[in-house]
Amino acid sequence: MARVALENVSKLYPGNVKAVDKLTLEVRDGEFVVLVGPSGCGKSTILRMIAGLEDVTSGTVTIGQRVVNDVQPKDRDIAMVFQNYALYPHMTVRQNMAFALKLRKVGKEETESRIRATADMLGLSELLDRLPKALSGGQRQRVAVGRAIVRQPAAFLFDEPLSNLDAKLRVQMRLELARLHNRLGTTMIYVTHDQAEAMTLGDRIVVMDDGVVRQIAAPTELYDSPADLFVAGFIGVPQMNFFAGTIEASATGVCFRADAGFELPVSAEMAGRLTAYAGKPVTLGLRPEHIGVSESEQRGSGLRIPAVVDVVEAMGSESYIHLHTGNTSFVSRVDAHRRFEPGQECLQAVFVEKAHFFDTATERRIE
Amino acid sequence: MSSKQAKRAEIGKHTLVVLVLLFAFIPLLITFVISFKSNQQFAVAPLTPTFPLHFENWAIGWETISGYIANSIVISVLAVVLTLVPALLSAFVFARFRFPGKTVLWYALLGLLFMPGIMNLVPLFTLLRDLNMLNSMLALSTLYAVGGQVFCVFVLRNFIEDMPQDLFEAAQVDGASPLQQIWSLVIPMSGSILGTLAILRFLASWNSFVMPLVMLSSQYKQVIPVGLMRLDGEYIKLWGPMMASFSIAAIPLVIIFLFTMRLFVKGLTAGAVKG
């Protein structure tokens, strides 16, 4: 097991295309860190630099106590699971798992016992003599993970390993990976564009955009206190609602005046911080579950946004109500048993204490 | 289409195929028929079977050309090995590595594809003479190997590039050196294309006539195409033994083809559909 650290790591592709810009990240020994972000944000590049499959343009990559910038992938003591599984098609499951051990000249008995143990752990014992083409997607994925586990590496790298699976299998495999991490306790670095995977698997999540880290935090912290508009919009399904507006400070107090036409009194806690933004453009962020929640939760705010229902998405246990007020659209997450009809006019209650404010100019959250 | 029409179309197709096959096989059949004739029988009925059958023609033929066949096998097998090993290594480098001047080198290599081989005959002869390597079977194999490089590198590079890059990266992380990647991934996965190239190169070396005629002066080192020509006497043609020799000369190729037919067809269509 080992810590993995990146210090001021940048990656420049030919033509001065910056894939990663001065990234600093420390993954602690035994930690499960998830890199998440939209396609092309540089998260896979980071993983490939840790693996040694891409050169680092500047900065240092450390695995354990060793700077590995110039170390070959095979000597970095890491194992990687690829998006397309990358199973050797002409080798059986057993041979796939034994390949790395054979190259490392691990004895036959030791190899066989490791394969047996891993196959038992992953439910692959019956499949050891099959070729990859005779396996289902989920089984192939398990073999790919098994091939990494038998290596007993210092760290595991996962490059969107579940993205080729169907939704049900993905949830199942997600659970298995979480169990696996609990069991092995090995350092794991996981790349995905699926924020649900990131939230459920990661001890900490690194949110990236355009080669830059936007925030590194634990899942709940990321959800409750997003550092900026990007993180706030990226984490959470449905995504956070944003309302453009300005801060108005008067003798009676501080309030947010939305361009959409409503006014939101600011909690006493936030008022002090927002006074400095009086007259400046500010963006209000509200999670869908903080709009239109049950009456008992609308403590004291007294705010109701007058809105018209556009679409109702029934999810079973809850419903997403898509509404608009003026030209601004937003979503509310409510109990599935509350009835809404398209075209219906309603007043949506807001959980004011949960409101986030962002400086529109810098996009940073006002704390 | 009614079943009657379909049947008629089937008959038409089959007739066409049979005609083409007849056209291709009749010369071989005639060669075979003549191989059992004496010169007198040949003069009377050149194309139809005659009796008695002169089996001794085959014995004479075998005695005459068995040495040439052995030489051809040695030279062709050696040429195949000498072609494919460096071609595979070069193709892997072109497919998997980034290095300065790669594109220029690649186009330079491709340019050689368009150079007619016969143009090299005189310079190669001079070169071998200066190296004191004329009349050497190894030198002839090397010439075949060099001649086959460009085409093989071209085909293999494209094939390796079409292989999923993740596989190579997984192997790299697993600890495989480039040579181990070639041995453990490329060779097992490109069996059909390597087999096809091996057959094509074997045939090219086996059938080559001008090169051995020029480069090999000793009759004991000579290969089958040149040897067969020598059977064609200046004053007397012994048709029976000559045709028996031709038939014997074809046997190794027929055997190779029978054993590798499926591989060969698979290789020819490789890359047509991405698997």
Record the SSE blueprint.
The complex is a heterodimer of chains A (367) and B (275).
Chain A: E1 4-13, E2 17-27, E3 32-36, H1 43-51, E4 58-63, E5 66-67, E6 78-81, H2 93-103, H3 108-122, H4 137-149, E7 155-159, H5 167-184, E8 187-192, H6 195-201, E9 204-209, E10 212-217, H7 219-224, H8 229-234, E11 241-250, E12 253-258, E13 263-265, H9 268-274, E14 281-286, E15 304-314, E16 318-325, E17 328-335, E18 345-349, E19 356-359
Parallel strand pairs in A: 3-8, 3-9, 6-7, 7-8
Antiparallel strand pairs in A: 1-2, 1-4, 4-5, 9-10, 11-12, 11-14, 12-13, 14-19, 15-16, 15-18, 16-17
Helix pairs in contact in A: 2-3, 2-4, 3-4
Chain B: H1 3-34, H2 39-44, H3 56-96, H4 102-113, H5 121-130, H6 137-162, H7 165-174, H8 178-189, H9 191-207, H10 210-215, H11 224-231, H12 239-269
Helix pairs in contact in B: 1-12, 3-6, 3-9, 3-11, 3-12, 6-9, 9-12
Descriptive labels:
heterodimer; A: 367 residues; alpha+beta; OB fold (Dihydrolipoamide Acetyltransferase, E2P); 6-stranded mixed β-sheet; 5-stranded antiparallel β-sheet; 9 helices; 33% strand; B: 275 residues; mainly alpha; MetI-like fold; disordered C terminus
